[in-house]
Design brief:
heterodimer; A: alpha/beta; 14 helices; 23 strands; 21% strand; B: 473 residues; alpha/beta; 9-stranded mixed sheet; 16 helices; 21 strands; 32% helix; 20% strand
Chain lengths: 472, 473
C-alpha cells in the first residue's frame, strides 16, 4: 500500500484508518458545513447517553480538546477551560457518533443502482453516523477514493471502513459481484483488494464453502476481516470456517432450512423462518457457535421492514432527499407491497425476536441501514430508523444506543478510540434536540455532529443533498 | 440485501449451453430475435462490404450457422433448400459496426449510471456487433455483462472489456485508480489481466513512469492499452508503447508549449486554436503513430455536445432517456448555447475534424466510437451512428466513414480476420439498413435487423425496450 504526503501531512492508508482532522485541513467543499471549529469546546448542561448502556445522565459538561474528549462529568464538577467555546445545550442530548455497520455508499430502487459518492457521505454524517463500514462495494475504487478524500478533508463525510467487492459463487444472478470459483481465485481477489486498502470483505449469497475458506484464510493473513450476506453457506458453517461477522440478523441464515443442499442458495430459506423458535435448540446452537467464536451480527431491520406491508410510513425528509423519479419508483414499490406483495409480518417479528435472543445469549450485535431494497431506507436516516426498530424489538433505548455505538466500535476493533463518551476517546459526538432516551424517535432531531471535535451542521448537510438521492 | 426479490425466488437464472456458432438463447434474449433459422438467405440486397469498396447492388448473402458461406449476385448464388429467405430489395447490408469508445455506463452533468440494461440493447439495436468499453466505471459489472451476453442470456454485442481507468495519484477521482508508483501499476494491471479484461485505459493524470510500468506488465500478459491523455502527450505515449489513443486531437498535449512533464495542463484546449493539421508538429505526431501502428479513435460526437446548438435534437434520443435525465441534458445544452465560449468553439471542433482527416491521409488507422458521457446527449449506439455522420462532415466519403466504423475497428482490435467486413468465411455480423448510407450517411440510422451469433435481432423492439431507461439502468 502506497503512502503519500500532501502539505506535509501523512494521509491515510489501510493501516491508519483513524486519521484525525483539524479544521485547518478542511477544504472548500467541507468548510461551509462546519459550525464549530474551536480547539477547545465545552458542551454544557447537556443530557449524556454515553453509549455503554448506562442510564442517561442529566446536566453534564463535555470538554473537547484537540479533537478528543478531555473531560466529561456533571456540570460544576468539570471545569470549563478558559477560552473554550461554550455551547449551552440545555434540553438537548449528546450521544456518541453512531457506527453504521451496513452502510453502503450506493443506493438502489427496484429500477436503479446508484453509486452515491456525493449524497452518501453527507447524509451519514448529517444523521449522526460518524463511522461506517460499507459492507459490500459495487465500486470499490470509488469507495477508496471517497475515503481518501474524506480523510484529506476535501469531502464531508464519516470515517470509512471500506469493504471490497461482493464475493459470490458462479451460480445465480450477478450484477457487480465478483465470482470466486476456486481457491486460487479467492486468494487472488482477496489479496488484491487487501493491498488496495480495503479493511473488510463481504461474501454474498452464492459463495461456496471452499472458496469462503480460502478467502478467509487469505484475508486474515492480510489483516482484513470478512463478513457475509449468506445463503449458500449457513451461519454455523461460516462460523466454523472462521468468518468474523454475519449480516442481516436472522434473514440470511440458512441454518434452519432442512431442504437446502450444500453450497446452494435455496430461495425457500425464507420459509424456514415462519416456524422458527428463537429460544429453541436450533437457534440457540447458532448463537452458541457465534458467541464462542466472537462472531458479531449486524441488525438491518430497516431494510427488511421496507418489504413488510404497511411498514414504514414514508418519511417526508426521505422523500425530499430523493430525486423525483427515484421517489416515484420507491412509492410505486411501497404501494405494491402494501397490497400484500411483500414479506409476511410474522417473519419480520421473528427476526426482531431473533436479534434480542442473540444478545440475551451473549452475542455482540451491531447495526446498520443497508440503503438498498426498494429505496426507502436512506443513508443515515435509515440507521436512525433501525435504532427505533431495535427498541420496537424489545431492547431498552440504552441497549439500542449501545448497539449503535459501542458495539459497532468493538466489532471494528476501535473501541479504545470511539463508540462511547469517555475522556480520552475521540470527540465523535452527536447533539440531539430532544430526549431520545425517553423517545428514541427523537434521534431524528440531530443538530450538530462532531467528528474528531469538528462540529458539522446537520440541517445544512441534509439540505445540500435535497433531490439528489438516486442520482449521485 | 441487494436482491431480496431474487431470494424470494421471483426471478430465475437460467442454465444454458453454448453451441458453436448459435448459442441457445435465454428468454430475455430470445424476446428480441426476429430471425431464428440455421440458414438464412438475404436476397436482392445492396452490399456495402466495409472495405471502402463501392456498393454492389442486388446481392445475395447466405448465412449458415452464423457465418457468411456465400455472397454474390442474386440468382447466381444458390439458396440452400430450407433456408429462410429474406428479400431486401431497396435495402442495404453492412458489416456490423465496431465501436471503440463504447462505455457500458452513461453520464449527464449530474449522474453516472452503470447501464447493464440499456447499453447492450442500444448498441446492438444501432448496428454495433462489437464494442470496446475503453474505460470501465465498474469493471466487475462489465465482466458479468459480457458473460451474460456471451452465454446468450441477454442481448448484446461482443465486448472487449477495458479495466478501470488508470490515472495519477495521490487520490483518484470517481472510480479511477491512482497509480502512485511502478509496483502499484504492475499490481493493478496484473490483477485485471487475470480477471479477464482485454484492454486498459490511462486517464489524464497518469505519469510516464506509471504508464511505462503498466504497459510493460500488460504486454507481457497480452493486454493492450489506450488512453484519454493529458499529462502524457501522444508522442511520448507512443514512445512508451501505447496501442491506441482516444478522442482524436482532443486529448493530445503535444502542441501545448506551456505544459510541464507528467502534469495535465489546463491550457491544452487552447493549444488547438489555430492549429495547422499540416504543420510539421502535427505531422510528427502522425508519423510516430503510423510507424508504431497506434490507432486513433474518433469520438467527435461527444465533443460536439459542447458546441453551441449542436447536434440537431433527435426525438429517439430524448425518448430513450428517463424524464430526469432528459431534463439534465436539455438544461446543459441550453446553458452551453447561452454561455459565450461556454463550451468548445466551433472552429476548434472543426480543427478536430480536420485532424482526423489528416491523420488518415498520413496513413493512420482511424476508428470510431461514441463515448456516451459528457452532458448525456450521445447515447449508446445512436451516438456511434452520429459519429459516422460527423466523419462525413469532416470530409470522409460515406464509404470511408463506414470503413472507419467497421473494418478499421476490427483491425484496431486485431479481429479483422473474423469480422469487420462482408466476405465469405467471416462471421455473419451484418446490419440491414432500410436505405442507402453509401449515398446518404444519415440512412445509417435506419437499422432494421442485426445479425449476430446466427440470429437476426429486431432493432425497433430493442429500442422500444429501452424507452425511458437511459439514465436509470
Amino acid at each position: 500500500m502506497s503512502r503519500f504526503t500532501l502539505l506535509g501531512l501523512v494521509l491515510v492508508g489501510a493501516a491508519a484508518p483513524l486519521t484525525a482532522q483539524r479544521p485547518a485541513m478542511l477544504g472548500p467543499e467541507v468548510r461551509p458545513f462546519v459550525t464549530v471549529d474551536a480547539p477547545v469546546v465545552a458542551l454544557t448542561h447537556v443530557r449524556v447517553i454515553d453509549g455503554t448502556g448506562a442510564p442517561a445522565a442529566e446536566d453534564q459538561t463535555i470538554v473537547i480538546r484537540d479533537g478528543r474528549i478531555a473531560a466529561v462529568g456533571p456540570f460544576g464538577r468539570v471545569t470549563v477551560p478558559a477560552g473554550a467555546k461554550v455551547l449551552e445545550l440545555t434540553g438537548r442530548t449528546v450521544i456518541p457518533g453512531m457506527i453504521g455497520l451496513h452502510d453502503h455508499t450506493f443506493y438502489t430502487t427496484p429500477q436503479r443502482t446508484v453509486q452515491s459518492n456525493f449524497s452518501a457521505p453527507r447524509l451519514y454524517l448529517a444523521s449522526g453516523v460518524t463511522t461506517i463500514r460499507t459492507t459490500g462495494a459495487i465500486s470499490p475504487y470509488s469507495e477508496i477514493n471517497v475515503r481518501r478524500s474524506i480523510d484529506a478533508g476535501t469531502v464531508p463525510g464519516p470515517r470509512m471502513y471500506v469493504t471490497g467487492p461482493y464475493l459470490t459463487g458462479p451460480g445465480g444472478d450477478h450484477a457487480e459481484e465478483t465470482v470466486i470459483s476456486t481457491d486460487a481465485e479467492a486468494r487472488r481477489v482477496v489479496a488484491y483488494w487487501a493491498e488496495e486498502g480495503v479493511q473488510w470483505m463481504k461474501f454474498y449469497t452464492g459463495v461456496s464453502r471452499a472458496a469462503m475458506k480460502a478467502a478467509i484464510d487469505e484475508g486474515h493473513r492480510h489483516g482484513i476481516k470478512l463478513t457475509g450476506h449468506l445463503c449458500s453457506v449457513s451461519y454455523r458453517e461460516a462460523v466454523a470456517l472462521g468468518i468474523d461477522a454475519l449480516e442481516h440478523g436472522l434473514l440470511a441464515n440458512s441454518d434452519y432450512d432442512k431442504a437446502r443442499k450444500p453450497d446452494q442458495c435455496d430461495p425457500a430459506m425464507m420459509n424456514s423462518f415462519m416456524t422458527l423458535d428463537v429460544e429453541g435448540p436450533e437457534a440457540q446452537a447458532t448463537f452458541r457457535d457465534m458467541v464462542s467464536h466472537h462472531v458479531s451480527m449486524t441488525s438491518t431491520l430497516a431494510v427488511f421492514e421496507l418489504f413488510v406491508p404497511d411498514r414504514p410510513a414514508p418519511e417526508q425528509r426521505a422523500l425530499d432527499a430523493m430525486s423525483p423519479e427515484t421517489r416515484s419508483e420507491y412509492l410505486a414499490s411501497h404501494d405494491q407491497i402494501a397490497k400484500g406483495n411483500g414479506m409476511p409480518s410474522k417473519i419480520f417479528t421473528t427476526a426482531m425476536a431473533y436479534e434480542r435472543a442473540f444478545v440475551r445469549a451473549g452475542g455482540l450485535l451491531g447495526f446498520g441501514v443497508d440503503p438498498t431494497g426498494n429505496g426507502g431506507a436512506l443513508f443515515g436516516f435509515g440507521d436512525q430508523r433501525n435504532l427505533e426498530l431495535l427498541v420496537e424489538a424489545g431492547f431498552t433505548p440504552m441497549e439500542a444506543f449501545r448497539i449503535a455505538t459501542l458495539n459497532g466500535a468493538k466489532i471494528l476493533g476501535i473501541a479504545d478510540q470511539l463508540g462511547s463518551i469517555e475522556a480520552g476517546k475521540r470527540a465523535d459526538l452527536v447533539v440531539v434536540a430532544g430526549n431520545p432516551a425517553a423517545n428514541v424517535g427523537e434521534i431524528r432531531k440531530v443538530e450538530t455532529v462532531f467528528k474528531d471535535g469538528v462540529g458539522y451542521d446537520s440541517a445544512k448537510l441534509i439540505e445540500s443533498v435535497k433531490g439528489q438521492i438516486g442520482i449521485r | 440485501m441487494r436482491s431480496y426479490l431474487v431470494a424470494l425466488g421471483l426471478m430465475t437464472a437460467g442454465i444454458h449451453s453454448l453451441a458453436a456458432q448459435r448459442p441457445t438463447l435465454g428468454g430475455r434474449a430470445k424476446a428480441f430475435v426476429s430471425v431464428d433459422a440455421p440458414v438464412v438467405a438475404l436476397t436482392h440486397a445492396r452490399v456495402i462490404d466495409g472495405t471502402g469498396a463501392a456498393p454492389v447492388e442486388d446481392q445475395t448473402v447466405i448465412i449458415t450457422d452464423g457465418k457468411i458461406t456465400a455472397l454474390g449476385k442474386t440468382g447466381s448464388v444458390s439458396v440452400p433448400s430450407g433456408a429462410k429467405e429474406i428479400d431486401l430489395t431497396g435495402k442495404s447490408v453492412l458489416p456490423g459496426l465496431i465501436g471503440l469508445h463504447d462505455h457500458s455506463y452513461y453520464t449527464t452533468s449530474s449522474r453516472t449510471v452503470q447501464s447493464n440494461f440499456s447499453a447492450p440493447l442500444l448498441y446492438l439495436a444501432a448496428g454495433l456487433t462489437t464494442i470496446r468499453t475503453t474505460g470501465a466505471n465498474n469493471p466487475y459489472a462489465e465482466l458479468n455483462l459480457k458473460r451474460e451476453v456471451d452465454a446468450g442470456r441477454f442481448p448484446g454485442t461482443r465486448m472487449f472489456i477495458t479495466g478501470p481507468y488508470l490515472t495519477g495519484g495521490p487520490t483518484g477521482s470517481g472510480s479511477m485508480v491512482p497509480l502512485n508508483d511502478e509496483a502499484e501499476a504492475r499490481r493493478v494491471v496484473a490483477y485485471w489481466a487475470e480477471e479477464g479484461v482485454q484492454w486498459l485505459k490511462f486517464y489524464t493524470g497518469v505519469s510516464r513512469a506509471a504508464m511505462k510500468a503498466a504497459i510493460d506488465e500488460g504486454h507481457k500478459r497480452g493486454l493492450k492499452f489506450t488512453g484519454h491523455l493529458c499529462s502524457v502527450p501522444y508522442r511520448e505515449a507512443v514512445a512508451l508503447g501505447m496501442d491506441g489513443l482516444e478522442h482524436g486531437m482532443f486529448a493530445n498535449s503535444d502542441y501545448d508549449k506551456t505544459r510541464t512533464p507528467d502534469q495535465c495542463s489546463p491550457n491544452m484546449m487552447k493549444s488547438y486554436v489555430g492549429l495547422d493539421v499540416n504543420s510539421p508538429e502535427v505531422q510528427a505526431t502522425f508519423k510516430d503513430m503510423t510507424a508504431r501502428n497506434v490507432a486513433l479513435t474518433s469520438t467527435l460526437v461527444v465533443y460536439e455536445l459542447f458546441v453551441a446548438n449542436r447536434p440537431p435534437l433527435e426525438q429517439r434520443v430524448l425518448d430513450a432517456m428517463s424524464p430526469d435525465a432528459r431534463t439534465e441534458y436539455l438544461t446543459s445544452r441550453s446553458r452551453i448555447a447561452e454561455t459565450p465560449n461556454g463550451g468548445i468553439p466551433l472552429d476548434v471542433f472543426k480543427t478536430g475534424m480536420k485532424y482526423e482527416y489528416a491523420f488518415v491521409k498520413a496513413g493512420g488507422l482511424l476508428a470510431s466510437g461514441v463515448d456516451p458521457t459528457g452532458n448525456g446527449g450521445a447515447l449508446f449506439g445512436f451516438g456511434d451512428q452520429r459519429n459516422l455522420e460527423l466523419l462525413v462532415e469532416a470530409g470522409f466519403t460515406p464509404l470511408e466513414a463506414i470503413q472507419i466504423g467497421s473494418a478499421n475497428g476490427a483491425k484496431a482490435l486485431g479481429i479483422y480476420d473474423k469480422t469487420g467486413s462482408i466476405a465469405v468465411g467471416k462471421l455473419a455480423e451484418l446490419v440491414v439498413v432500410n436505405g442507402n448510407p453509401a449515398a446518404q450517411i444519415s440512412d445509417i440510422k435506419k437499422v432494421e435487423t442485426i445479425f449476430r451469433d446466427g440470429y437476426g435481432w429486431d432493432s425497433a423492439k430493442m429500442i422500444e425496450a429501452v424507452r425511458g431507461q437511459v439514465g436509470v439502468r
